[in-house]
Amino acid sequence: KRVTDRYLKREVLGEGTYGVVFKAIDTKTGETVAIKRIRLGKYKEGVNFTALREIKLLKELKDPNIIELIDAFPYKGNLHLVFEFMETDLEAVIRDRNIVLSPADIKSYIQMMLKGLAFCHKKWVLHRDMKPNNLLIGAEGQLKLGDFGLARIFGSPERNFTHQVFARWYRAPELLFGTKQYGSAVDVWAAGCIFAELLLRRPFLQGSSDIDQLGKIFAAFGTPKSSQWPDMVCLPDYVEYQFVSAPPLRSLFPMASDDALDLLSRMFYI
Ligand code: ADP
Q1: pLDDT at 161 > cutoff 50
Q2: In what residue span(s) does the Protein kinase domain sit (predicted)?
């Protein structure tokens, strides 16, 4: 079956936040691609135009550590986003107990992740939804960030429960307190959580609600004092937490090198 005359549809790869993802062959290049079909029905007409305009900008974001958006078009009432095809993602790698992750492997994944992030932040594009299953891994082990900018264009509404739960573990404290003004630091925070997850081989801060997530963050890094974060008490969803002091970071990551801990602590702004 064809999607326009350019793409030959293959099997479904999975269901994502925004809709179904399927494999396809790009007859123009012969390459395998992944097509995300985004339901537009729920969005107002105006949003479609804005979305398409912004998606045009994403097509210009080309970097070895960013998933390339090859094409974008509306078709049969759905928006179709065509990406380069990737073999697997970091979540699957972390979960697969048969895969050994040496310090060199972790370093290399983190470097690729941060290079991709730096490239986009330099162009003033935030990711906003960094998590291990958005870090795609190619056949040669190259890591690329997926879904760049989509969270901002489409928002994160109508996420089903699992999506919301998994995304929560990577959310920065200012987001959990409901800030409306945030910057690239929210992606760096999430990248720190992913770094920690590579070291631990399990999600680092697994909150069961937004309140619990902040509790987990403060248990790990200490409750921030208002002298450290004066704006905190003004944030829309601010609630007071009982003061706890931070355990040594080393106690949470017994096997990590000093350099790894140094980088990690800076990514968590501590
Ligand atoms: P989520 O919204 O949960 O992050 P996605 O919409 O990114 O999920 O993807 C849904 C499914 O499609 C996932 O299982 C993922 O493995 C697969 N997928 C997404 N992008 C690609 C890609 N570029 N290449 C291969 N598979 C992909």
Answers
A1: no
A2: 7-270
Encode the chain in three state secondary structure.
Answer: CEECCCEEEEEEEEECCCCEEEEEEECCCCCEEEEEEEECCCCCHHHHHHHHHHHHHHHCCCCCCECCEEEEEEECCEEEEEEECCCEEHHHHHHCCCCCCCHHHHHHHHHHHHHHHHHHHHCCCCCCCCCHHHEEECCCCCEEECCCCHHHHHCCCCCCHHHHHHHHCCCCHHHHCCCCCCCCHHHHHHHHHHHHHHHHCCCCCCCCCHHHHHHHHHHHHCCCCCCCCHHHHHCCCCCCCCCCCCCCHHHHCCCCCHHHHHHHHHHCCC
pLDDT by residue (tens digit) across 16-54? 777 899 999 999 999 999 999 987 765 555 556 677 777
Which residue in 54, 80, 56 sits closest to 153, CA to CA?
Answer: 54
* pLDDT computed for residue 155 by the predictor: 61
* pTM of the shown model: 0.90
Tens of pLDDT, residue by residue over 59-72, are 889 999 999 999 99
CA 90 to CA 7: how far, in whole Å?
Answer: 27
Is-catalytic flag, 210? no
The residue to mutate among 13, 15, 91, having the most atoms of ligand 1 within 8 angstroms of its beta carbon, is 13
Q: Which residues contact 122 (CB under 8 A, 6 or more apart)?
A: none
User: pLDDT higher for 185 or 148?
Assistant: 185
* CA-proximal residue: ligand 1, atom 9 (nearest): 16
